[in-house]
Amino acid sequence: MDFKKMYQEKLVTAEEAAKVVKSGDWVDYAWTTCTPVAVDKAIAARMPELTNVNFRGGILMWVPEIFKIENPADHLTWNSWHMGGIERKAIAQGFSFYSPMRYSELPRFYRDMPEELRPDVAVMQVAPMDEHGFFNFGPNASHLAAVCETAKVVIVEVNENMPVCFGGTEEGIHISHVDMIVEGDNPTIAEMGGAAAASEVDEAVAKLIVEEIPDGACLQLGIGGMPNAVGSLIAKSDLKDLGVHTEMYVDAFVDIANAGKITGARKNIDKGRQVYGFGAGTKKLYDYLNRNPECMSAPVSYTNDIRTISALDNFMSINNAVDLDLFGQVNAESSGIKHISGAGGQLDFVLGAYLSKGGKSFICCSSTFKTKDGELKSRIVPTLNPGSIVTDTRANTHYLVTEYGKVNLKGLSTWQRAEAIISIAHPQFRDELIASADKMHIWRRSNKI
Length: 449
Hints:
The protein is α/β, with parallel strands linked by helices. The chain has helices at residues 3-10, 14-18, 38-46, 85-91, 106-112, 144-150, 200-210, 225-235, 251-258, 283-289, 300-303, 306-310, 346-355, 414-423, 427-439, and strands at residues 11-12, 26-28, 53-57, 76-80, 96-98, 121-126, 134-136, 153-158, 172-174, 180-183, 218-221, 243-249, 274-279, 295-297, 315-320, 323-325, 330-331, 334-335, 338-339, 360-364, 368-370, 376-378, 380-381, 399-402, 405-408. The N and C termini lie far apart (72 Å).
């Protein structure tokens, strides 16, 4: 095949590409740094003449132009697989909605979805075509191959700044499967700001977790201050021969790797490779991932598969929570009915880590938070607030960690759980939590805190 000739034959302007979008279409905008820019602007220019255009995407790192049109709710819906701050704001405008699903299911969902839900158009930023005719998805293998396989029209928007991320399967698309090629303005790859400096609480939680990690452990870190604090502490530790198998590749992994702590030498599978479903962070992260054969960009159906996770010995899963209750239910998705993020892969890693030989799952959070009015509130509550989402059921939680300690809930009955959980609550709230536990018949007089 003459790939250069095919490239020229499929090369169109962003405006020409935007013309394929029709009222009633499902349009897939990919994911994080792959979200289109030039074609998005061209589609936005057409939106006033269109109605009921349904977009899919997730973790937006900048505000798309389609969000900026007048009265977007009259013309479109945004259906997110995982929400960030930009999408949360759009909820209040009446056109942004969350699609609840375990992230690991996305590739299969696309491939099995009914014809009427399949993408009419898929458009995404990619790295420039290589000599073999492939466009790389950058740090976003995730579910994008499945999106492209099922879309009626595939449009790629070439960005020379997109890092090329090696993988093994489903990290890119061949030109023979692309319908249109747009050469964008090569915008700088959007950065997800590095976490703020770790607080004393973050550091206290991190210390409690790191002392549980053995040499040769395989790490999964969620996003946020606490997982980053754990990463920073690991980088300064004496730990060695660590491995990486994670949903999201974050800046903390770069720091741990540069400190010489990551070799992957003891991994049961993918030995020597740092495996991830997608990556988002600062330029430091993108530069590290670019053409790095040590790093393996893989579909989320592999990275987040409980069977894959459990095959890795000493798997350490470290994730955040919004709040949790005395039964051990964990909410990591909402504040009551106010949506925050999504299910993601947290439950997959909670389950997979526990099934791993020597594995441990840690859910961590500060014991308290302050409201806008400065009032101190407990993150540990008697029962989750109405509308709060149960991300991890009480049957699945393993370790819970706050700055006041860590507890292992496996095998504990309800009164033992209540005692253990209250023991890591802020002291100011322990008496009222005990009173609530007593009313709910999950407290014994012999319990001690």
